[in-house]
From TrEMBL:
It comes from the Eukaryota. InterPro entries: At1g28695/At4g15970-like, Nucl-diP-sugar_transferase, Nucleotide-diphossugar_trans. One of its GO terms (cellular component) is Golgi membrane. PANTHER family: EXPRESSED PROTEIN-RELATED, GLYCOSYLTRANSFERASE. One of its GO terms (biological process) is cell wall organization. It is an enzyme of class 2 (transferase). Keywords: Cell wall biogenesis/degradation, Glycosyltransferase, Golgi apparatus, Membrane, Signal-anchor, Transferase, Transmembrane, Transmembrane helix. It is a single-pass type II membrane protein. Its main location: Golgi. This is Glycosyltransferase. One of its GO terms (molecular function) is glycosyltransferase activity. It comes from Arachis hypogaea (Peanut). The chain crosses the membrane at residues 25-43. The keyword Transferase applies.
Amino acid sequence: MKDSGYSGGDAAAGGGGNHLLVRRVMQMTMVVLAFVVVWILMYNSSSPFAIPVFSRYITTRDSTMISYDPELESVLRNASMENKTVIITTLNDAWAEPNSIFDIFLKSFHLGIETERLLKHLVVITLDQKAHARCQALHPHCYHLETKGDNFTKEAFFMTQDYLKMMWRRIQFLGSVLEMGYSFVFTDTDIMWLRNPFNEFYNDGDFQIACDFYNGNSNDLNNLPNGGFTYVKSNEKTIWFYKFWLNSRKAYPKMHDQDVFNKIKMNPLIQNIKLKIRFLGTTHFGGFCQPSKEFNQVCTMHANCCVGLDNKVNDLKILLDDWSKYMALPNNTKPNVHTSWTVPQSCKTSFQRSRNRKNKGR
């Protein structure tokens, strides 16, 4: 604390010093304000590498000017777990036909271990009216997502324009769910739920993603992820990340969301915001690319590395038959059983043919 016993001359000198101090403070304030304006402008630009401004998301959440579809709010609220987490899948007419993917998907929840109760937390996002009607006939939590003129009724073949539009519309929608304050597990409908996966997620992960091929290290960004299964916590980091991911499609216009993720996952901006990415191992989260070898630990199995709806349907039915045989075993023998999957079959052939055609085209 300064001494208050100044002389008159000192007081005059102090007044001049105070004016100089005020001018310097004002100059510094203007510099800071200019920097903030430039920062915000850079973020709002079309560049996929825009700088994150976390306060923007806080303002958005608190703002009464921002509103969401009341029907979506209602569906999410009714399906939510106590910690505001939902399970989400998407559905179009091709996959909603009777005895097709959607029926098999729902059946897996009934056959799985501690999975049937998770159906009350499943939200099905339908992409056309026929799929929506089919969903409503089978499930309580359905939401029809408007697609602004795009027609996603038919099967969207891998890497076609319809496929790319569908994938990016999905990323956009999931980002909005995060903004609404809901965490989610996103699951493709060709993933069979065989055990409750929540026990196998990492406590410290903001964004957790399954893999086509897993190298054994959940922190290693060199893993080859599959965007068909993710667990994402709603927070400022993940909300920003989904916006960044969506904007990054402009830098890679011919890539789908999974390949773009592979391009941006090591970006310094993601490291700067300290987004914790964890990769889920194929022992618990397997697929046809790299099947889980542990029936006693597997949670989900994905019909990845597979081309064609009919091939997926055929092999997923066989997969559930394999699982049903395992479940029929006496409980005391299951820990020691060495059961193996009899799939992929049709999917293996279709995938190999697809790879051969791709290699010939090079």
